[in-house]
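Can't paste images in this forum, so I'm doing it all in text. The chain is below; anyone willing to post the predicted C-alpha cells underneath?
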Amino acid sequence: MSLSPGSHLGPYEILAALGAGGMGEVYRAKDMKLGRDVALKVLPQEFFEDRGRVERFEREAKLLAALNHPNVATIHAFEEVSGRHLLVMELVEGTTLRDKLDAGPLPQRKAVDYAVQIARGLSAAHEKGIVHRDLKPENLFVTKDGHLKILDFGLAKRAQAAPAPDVTSAPTKSQHTEPGTVFGTVAYMSPEQVRGLPLDHRSDIFSFGVVLYEMLSGRRAFKRDTSAETMTAILREEPPDLSGSGKNIPPALDRIVGHCLEKSPERRFGSAHDVAFALEEAVAAATSGQRAAAFGEGRHVFIKVVAGAVALLAVAGAFLFLRQRRGGPAAGPKRVAVLPFENLGAPEDDYFADGIADEVRGKLTSLPGLEVIARASSTPYKKTSKTPAQIARELEARYLLTGTVRWQKGAGNTNRVAVRPELVEVTGSAAPASRWQQPFDAELTDVFRVQSEIAGRVATALGVALGTGEERRLSEKPTQNLTAYDAFLRGEEASKSLGFSDPASLRRSLGFYEQAVALDPAFVQAWAQVSRTCSALHYLSTPSPALTERARQAAEKALALAPDRPEGHLALGDFQIHVARDRESALKHYARGRSLAPGNADLLTAAAVVEERLGRWEAAVGHFRQAERLDPRAALTLRRLGEAFLFLRRYPEARETLDRGLAFAPANLDLIEQSAMLSLAEGDLSGARAVLRSSSKTVEPTALVAYMANYWDLVWVLDEGQRDLLVRLTPSAFDDDKGAWGLCLAQAYALKNDAANVRSYAEEARSAFEKQSRANPEDAQRHFLHGLALAYLGRKDEAIRAGERGAMIAPLAKDAYDGPYLQHQLVRIYILVGEPEKALDRLEPLLRVPYFLSPGWLKIDPNFDPLRKNPRFKKLEAGAP
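Text version of the structure:
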C-alpha cells in the first residue's frame, strides 16, 4: 500500500514518493526525532514472511550501516514500525546515472571519473565482505555537484571469503544465494549470477564492466530482445570492441572493460581496488601534467588526447597484465617465454649464459604489448629434453626465445661472446616456425649492446612499436663495469629466488652483490638486491641493527640512482614490509614499481603479501593469480597462493595449488611444509607425516627436520625417528641461531617427557632470545620466543611479561598475517604456565580470522592437550562458533 504525503510511519513523516521497484517503495521523509530528511525504503511484506529472513536482513543492514564511504549511500537504520520493515537511508539530492545516460552520451572524462568513484565504493564494500549483486545505472546516483554514490544494497549478501571483521566481532556464516536462485537485473548480471551460482566480489566487477561499457559507448553490452537472449549473450558472447564504436575510445579502456567482462571470475580483476587504482593513476597523470588523456567534448576537450591514450595504455597494462580476451592473436598481447640460453662453453660459465637470458627477459618485460613469462617459470627448462610444443603448451606461450652462448676467453682484450638467439612461434599441432634468428659475435665489452639488440629485434619481429622511451629502456646498460656485472650474475645464481627461506644461500648471494656495488657504486640492480637480501635475512634469520641499516641504505641508494626504474621501489617496499613493518608505505612503493613495470611478477607477489597483512585476502589472492599467469611454474608464487587458501580454510583450492607447486619443485621445503600443514588443518596427522616421508627422496633429512621444527613450530609433526635426528643437530643446522636451536630441541624433549633436557635447551634458548630482544626491542617475535623459552623453564611471571610485551608491540589487529601467529605463541605461553582461560581468550579469535588453525588441527596438536577437558576448548574442537 502506497503512503501519501503527510502520513506517518512511527517517527517518520512522509514528504514525497521517490520511486518504487522490486525491493520496495522509496519515500522522502522527515525523521522527526533527529530533524533531518531521509530516504525511507519500505520493504515488501512478502520479503519478510519468515523471521529468519528478517534476522538475516537485519544483520546485513548492520554491516552496511558500518560501511562509511563517500561513494556509498549511508544506511542509518533498519526498523520495524507498525508491522512495516523500513530501511532508513541517507537522502541524496540529484539524479540517477540512468537518467544521465538517457539524456545522451557521457563525455569520456566524466565516464572515467564516475567509474573511479564506483570502483572506490565497491572496493570499500568488498573489503567489508559485502557484495552488491545488483549494480546498474539505476542504483548509481549522481549528486548535483557530480559526486557519485552507490545505492540499494538491498540484494547484497555477505561474500563467501570476505576479509574478517575485527576479532572482537562474532563470526557470521557466509550468506549465499542458493544454487539455482537468480536475483538482480538481467542486463547487468555476471555469468555466474545468470547460472544461479554462489557469488563473490568478482560478480560486481563484471557488472561494473557492463556499466562502464555503457557509459563509454552509449549502448548496453548485452542488449537483446528478450531476457533469455540477454542471458545467453552474457554466457556465450562478447560485446563489440569499444575501440570500434566510433567514440574515439582508447584501446586501453577497451581492455579494462574486457578484463572486467571475462566470463570466468578468475580471469577478471582481482579486486575493485585494482580497478580503482588503474583509473586513479590515469587521472593522477592527467592532473600532474604527465602527458595524460583529456576526456571531454566541445570546449572541455584537452589538447593532449593522443598522449593520454598512451598513459592509459601503460596504466591498464599494470593491472591487466595484457591478458588475451577474445582468443585471437589480435585480441591481446603476445605471450613470450625467454628460455635459458644454452652455454656452449665451460660448465662453470653457465651463470653467464643465464645472465644474458635474464637481461633480455627483463628488457622485454618493460615493453607494452608483450606478456613475458617470468624467470622462475622459464629456468626449469634449462637443458630440458622437452619439445618446443610441450614447453609452449605448459607455459601457455605462443613465442619462445631460445639461444646459445659461448664465452671465448683469451688473454688481454681478446675475450669475446658469441650469442645465437632464435625466436620461434608455436601454434596448435603445427611444427614450430622460426620468426627471427641472427648470430651476434662481439667483444665481451659489447655484451650489453648485444642484449639490447636481441630484445629490440625480438620486439620488432613481434610487431611491437618502440617509442623513444622504450628504445631508451632497451639500450640501458646495467653497469659499465664487467667485473661488477660478473659478480652480480654470480649473486643471482647463488640466490635463485629471494623468497625461499634459506639464510645460507642469501648470505652467499649477498657477498656477490656487495662485491658488485663496491666495483660499481652506480649499479642500480645490484644495490636493489643488496637491500632485498638484507631485508629477507632480517625477516628470516636473527635481525640486527647493522642488517636493518644496510637494507635501508641500499634501497634508498637504488631509488636515488634510478627513481623511474622499478628495482628501487621493489627494494624499498621489501624494506618497509619486512623491516620497518610499514604496510601502507610498502604498498605504495610496490604500486609505483608496478606502474613502471606492469609485467613484473615479483612486484605482484610482493603487493599480494602486503594485502594479506592488511587483511585484504581476496585482493591478495587476485594478485597471486595474476602473478601465476606471468610465472606459472614459480614455486614461490604457488606456495604463497596455496598458503593464502590454507589460511582462508579453502582446503580443496589449497591442495590443488600446492600439488601443482610440488610437481614443479618436489624438493622445495616451503611447499612440502605447507602441504603437510594442509593435512594438519584437515585433522590428518598421518597424512602430514606421509607428505614428509615422500619428500625424503628429494630432500636431505637434516634440512627437512630442521626446517619443520623451526618454521611454524612443527616439532610435534615429526615422527619418532625424525625427532631423534633433530636432537642430534647442532646450531649450525639453524643458521647458528642458538635461540631457535634450543627452543626446537626443548620442544622435542618435552614430547619425550625428558624434563632435564627440556630445562637445559630452554635455558640455551632463553639466553639467546634475551640478547636478541635487547638488541631489537621493537621486534615482537623476539619477545614471544623469549617468553616461550621462559615458559618451558617454569618462570611464569617473566614468561607472561615477555609474551604480553610482544602482544603490545604487535596486536592481532595490526597485521593479519603475522599477527595470528604471534598471538598463537602467547596461547602456548599461557598453556605452559597453567593459565588455561587466558590461553582460550587468545585462542578463540584465531579460529575466526584467516589462519592455519582449525577444529581439525586442535584435535591432533599435543600442545593443546592441557585444554582438552575444558568446555570452551571442546566447543572449538567441535567447530562451534
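The two ends are 41 Å apart (CA to CA). Residues 679 and 688 are 5 Å apart (CA to CA).
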